[in-house]
Design brief:
The chain has 2 domains: about 5-70, Ribosomal Protein L25, Chain P (Beta Barrel); about 75-235, Alpha/beta knot. The strands form 2 sheets. Strands 1-4-5-6-3-2 form a 6-stranded mixed β-sheet. A 6-stranded parallel β-sheet has the order 9-8-7-11-10-12, with helices on both faces. Helix 2 packs across helix 4 (about 125-140) and helix 2 (about 85-100) runs parallel beside helix 7. It has 7 helices and 12 strands. It is α/β, with parallel strands linked by helices.
Length: about 240
């Protein structure tokens, strides 16, 4: 936890916050903080700064706050990711948040199993928890805009062209021959398929909607690995 993330309900008075639960345990066991120590803190959706430990015991952590820093700017990036298998979903959502994507769309695809959509990890509270962990890792306070697209064709034909207006879009697909982008027009939309890859009909549809091919080479990467490599290449 590189940032102690605060929620509005944690605020007990102007410039004061009281925490318990997971964050309290982390501060005690990992940071090994004591009264008088300062921690990096940030208010969800708001400013960041420092929190001085006023009181710390088994039940709660009381902080004196100075929030005077803006969170890091979001990348002008929309990630369109074919819904990963549940075991990988947490890592993908947390990584997308840590990388600073402004928007994340989880999309259905031919090789996405229907059972993935009913996984407990798809519950709003589970997805939110992973985004919060991503914010704590990256020292950020603003969550990406998250949406679910369970129908491939309506998304590609209706929503994707709107996302591409005034910007640039890329389709990550092995063997596509697409080269590294240069002189990008922001914003950027990046589509990443399932680990089994997009099927050819999906590739044609996505390219037809205005995406440009982008090829990382012959290796088949895990979704979270491809995500980090592609964002690093583009930005």
């Amino acid at each position: 936890m590189n940032l102690v993330l605060l929620f509005p309900e944690d605020l007990t008075a102007p410039g004061r916050a009281c925490l318990s639960g997971r964050r309290l345990r982390h501060v005690r066991e990992v940071h090994r903080a004591e009264a008088g120590d300062e921690l990096a803190v940030g208010l969800l959706g708001g400013l960041m700064g420092r929190g001085r430990v006023v009181r710390l015991d088994d039940e709660s952590l009381e902080l004196e706050l100075l929030l005077d820093q803006e969170p890091p700017p979001k990348l002008p990036l929309t990630l369109v990711i074919a819904l990963p298998r549940p075991k990988a979903l947490n890592r993908v959502v947390a990584a997308a948040t840590s990388l600073g994507a402004a928007r994340l769309v989880l999309l259905n695809a031919w090789k996405v199993e229907k059972a993935y959509w009913s996984s407990p990890k798809m519950k709003p509270e589970s997805l939110r928890e992973q985004m919060l962990l991503g914010l704590e890792q990256a020292k950020d306070t603003v969550m990406p805009e998250l949406s679910l697209a369970r129908l491939f064709r309506p998304f590609v034909e209706g929503d994707l062209p709107t996302l591409l207006e005034g910007g640039t879009g890329f389709l990550a697909h092995p063997g596509s021959g697409g080269t590294s982008p240069k002189a990008l027009a922001a914003p950027v939309t990046l589509a990443i398929g399932p680990e089994g890859g997009w099927i050819e009909a999906e590739v044609r549809s996505l390219l037809g909607a205005g995406l440009k091919p982008l090829d990382l080479g012959p290796r088949i990467l895990r979704t979270e690995t491809a995500l980090a490599a592609l964002v690093g290449r583009i930005f």
